[in-house]
């Protein structure tokens, strides 16, 4: 594509609405929540041009009110996975040949639909289906997904404009083709934006997709698909299925046309899929692209020069927003002895003001964890920590699943920096703190780097620039997203491309050009205008 041709302006991040008392958006969102609660949806799979209803219905309920029924989705089987693959392959040629600006227009329209008529519907679905507060839903299902769609279009145009140099008499050009075959998006429960971005980023680059969301995110995934359809996405480009994970993998990873995996979820699942793909590598027409963002055991490292109030606020938000169910959530903190009493005081003061309950009450800062399985896992870690004589639970530690899956924000102080809750990912509202001697900063940096197999996010709090530089260097491989004097959560598309390495994934940075490049297969074309007609080179001439 010629430079400057159809240049898309650099997008602005979607403004975050406040939902403050008396605001128009607060009234509109409350109305959308009431309307959603008043109906029971019958949610189909979307395969090709069909809405597929199998009759195998699975109930959907708010995690904070599990006796209330939001609706039912129709579960598929291996046959529906095959049907989705065939639909994706059937749509491939026409979609791949569609002009890039027409693909872009569809997803830009989807972004505007989310920013406008679907904003409150997608936020309400995320609040009810995934138990997110108004603010957490707004920054996720509205703003971040809108940003992904708009910034991905901009990044795509940047990629297409990157062309090789040409010497006299030759025209070199680069063709950014979609991958050969179909691609597979496997998305998690915790971010509606991720659920929308993983399949749409592949589709934007000309690929067709089989998309399987977590069953606990189907309620909002259905709205995403409605938005894509309203934006004019052709049938078969993205096929949304609700099928058993192992059964889906059995079909997908044994298919010769499998070309790429875009995944966010657990490290264990990702490693299992990678192993299966490796074992099946001879079956595929091409080497599949594998992109994954997985777990984290994210740290807050504090220097003795830090501001205690700032540290406490970062822990309150970083560890407990969305009940700690973010792969970037602060899960372990290292506090110097000179600051510990002040940090403890401010943190406990914050926790005393937290209200916990359903998302319909906008005064609740803490809502429910996603389901009973997560509830049991998280509370199991709390009980394990309680039994350890090296630990002290200084806040929280209680839980109740009578009405919803509620777990109190829990703070564990451990004298053992290698205790279970300091090392293992919990994915819930549990923060473990290790208090180190204020003079042992550098040694503690070594501890931070070696404690966890993950390397997703982390932060350093310090007013000492030498300490900040030392931490940044010592922890260079410990976090793909590193924050200075800020909590380790809240990456913004176009500002902080997101992803980590080690056990946290392939670090292909969602919300960046590099991620889209993974979904393109490049072809170099050289055209010679006046080809030579004699094989002889000048050096062959006689003296």
Ordered list of secondary-structure elements with their pairings:
Layout: H1 24-37, E1 41-43, E2 45-47, E3 50-52, E4 57-60, E5 71-74, H2 78-97, H3 100-115, H4 119-130, H5 134-161, E6 170-178, E7 182-187, H6 192-204, E8 209-213, H7 218-230, E9 238-240, H8 245-252, E10 258-264, H9 267-279, E11 289-293, E12 298-302, H10 308-320, E13 330-336, H11 340-353, H12 372-387, E14 391-395, E15 399-400, E16 406-407, E17 410-414, H13 420-423, E18 430-436, H14 441-451, E19 454-455, E20 457-461, H15 465-474, E21 481-484, E22 501-502, H16 513-517, E23 520-528
Parallel strand pairs: 1-5, 7-8, 7-10, 8-9, 10-11, 12-13, 12-20, 13-18, 17-18, 20-21
Antiparallel strand pairs: 2-3, 4-5, 6-23, 14-17, 15-16, 19-22
Helix pairs in contact: 1-4, 2-8, 3-5, 4-5, 4-7, 5-6, 10-11
Give the overall pLDDT as a whole number.
Answer: 97
Describe the oligomeric state of these chains in a short phrase: single chain
Count the E strands: 23
Distance between the termini: 47 Å
> Low-confidence parts lasting 5 or more residues at pLDDT below 50?
none
Write a concise synopsis of the structure shown.
With 543 residues, the chain is α/β, with parallel strands linked by helices.
Tell me what you see in this structure:
The protein is α/β, with parallel strands linked by helices and 543 residues long. Helix content is 39%, strand content 20%. It has a 7-stranded mixed beta sheet with strand order 14-17-18-13-12-20-21, with helices on both faces. Strands 9-8-7-10-11 form a 5-stranded parallel beta sheet, with helices on both faces. A 3-stranded mixed beta sheet has the order 1-5-4, covered by helices on one side. Helix 13 links the parallel strand 17 and strand 18. Helix 2 crosses helix 8 and helix 5 packs parallel to helix 6. The chain is globular and about 85 Å long. The model has no long low-confidence stretch (mean pLDDT 97).
């Amino acid at each position: 594509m010629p430079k400057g041709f159809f240049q898309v302006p650099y997008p602005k991040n979607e403004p975050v609405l406040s939902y403050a008392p008396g605001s128009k958006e607060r009234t509109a969102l409350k109305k959308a929540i009431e309307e959603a609660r008043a109906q029971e949806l019958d949610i189909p799979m979307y395969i090709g041009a069909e809405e597929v209803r199998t009759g195998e219905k699975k109930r959907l309920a708010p995690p904070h009110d599990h006796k209330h029924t939001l609706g039912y989705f129709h579960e598929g089987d291996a046959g529906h996975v095959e049907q989705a693959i065939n639909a994706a392959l059937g749509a491939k040629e026409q979609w791949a040949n569609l002009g890039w600006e027409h693909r872009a227009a569809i997803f830009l329209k989807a972004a505007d639909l989310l920013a406008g008529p679907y904003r409150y519907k997608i936020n309400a679905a995320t609040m009810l289906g995934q138990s997110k507060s108004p603010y957490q839903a707004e920054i996720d299902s509205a703003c971040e997904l809108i940003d992904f769609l708009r910034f991905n279009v901009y990044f795509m145009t940047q990629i297409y404009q990157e062309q090789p140099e040409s010497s006299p008499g030759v025209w070199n050009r680069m063709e950014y083709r979609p991958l050969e075959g179909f691609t597979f998006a496997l998305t998690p429960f915790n971010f509606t934006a991720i659920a929308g971005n993983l399949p749409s980023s592949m589709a934007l680059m000309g690929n067709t997709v089989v998309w399987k969301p977590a069953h606990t995110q189907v309620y909002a995934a259905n709205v995403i698909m409605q938005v894509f359809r309203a934006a004019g996405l052709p049938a078969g480009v993205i096929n949304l299925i609700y099928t058993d994970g192992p059964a889906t993998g059995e079909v997908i990873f044994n298919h010769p046309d499998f070309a790429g995996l875009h995944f966010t979820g657990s490290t264990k699942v990702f490693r299992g899929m990678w192993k299966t793909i490796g074992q099946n590598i001879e079956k595929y027409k091409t080497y599949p692209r594998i992109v994954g963002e997985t777990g984290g055991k994210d740290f807050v490292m504090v220097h003795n020069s830090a501001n205690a109030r700032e540290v406490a606020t970062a822990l309150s938000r970083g560890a407990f927003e969305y009940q700690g169910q973010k792969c970037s959530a602060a899960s372990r903190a290292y506090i110097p002895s000179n600051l510990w009493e002040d940090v403890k005081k401010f943190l406990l003061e914050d926790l005393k003001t937290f209200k916990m309950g359903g998302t319909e009450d906008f005064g609740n800062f803490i809502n429910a964890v996603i389901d009973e399985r997560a509830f049991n896992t998280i509370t199991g870690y709390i009980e394990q920590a309680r039994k350890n004589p090296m630990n002290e639970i200084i806040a929280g530690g209680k839980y109740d699943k009578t009405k919803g899956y509620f777990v109190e924000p829990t703070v564990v102080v451990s004298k053992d920096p290698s205790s279970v809750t300091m090392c293992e990912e919990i994915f819930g509202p549990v923060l473990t703190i290790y208090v180190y001697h204020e003079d042992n900063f550098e040694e503690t940096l070594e501890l931070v780097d070696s404690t966890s197999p993950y390397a997703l996010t982390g932060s350093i709090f310090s007013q000492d620039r030498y300490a900040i530089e030392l931490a940044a260097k010592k922890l260079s491989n410990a976090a793909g997203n590193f924050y200075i004097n800020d909590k380790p959560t809240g990456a913004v598309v176009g500002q902080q491309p997101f992803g980590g390495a080690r056990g946290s994934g392939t670090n292909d940075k969602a919300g960046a050009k590099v991620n889209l490049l993974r979904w393109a297969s490049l072809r170099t074309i050289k055209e010679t205008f006046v080809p030579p007609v004699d094989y002889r080179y000048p050096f062959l001439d006689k003296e």
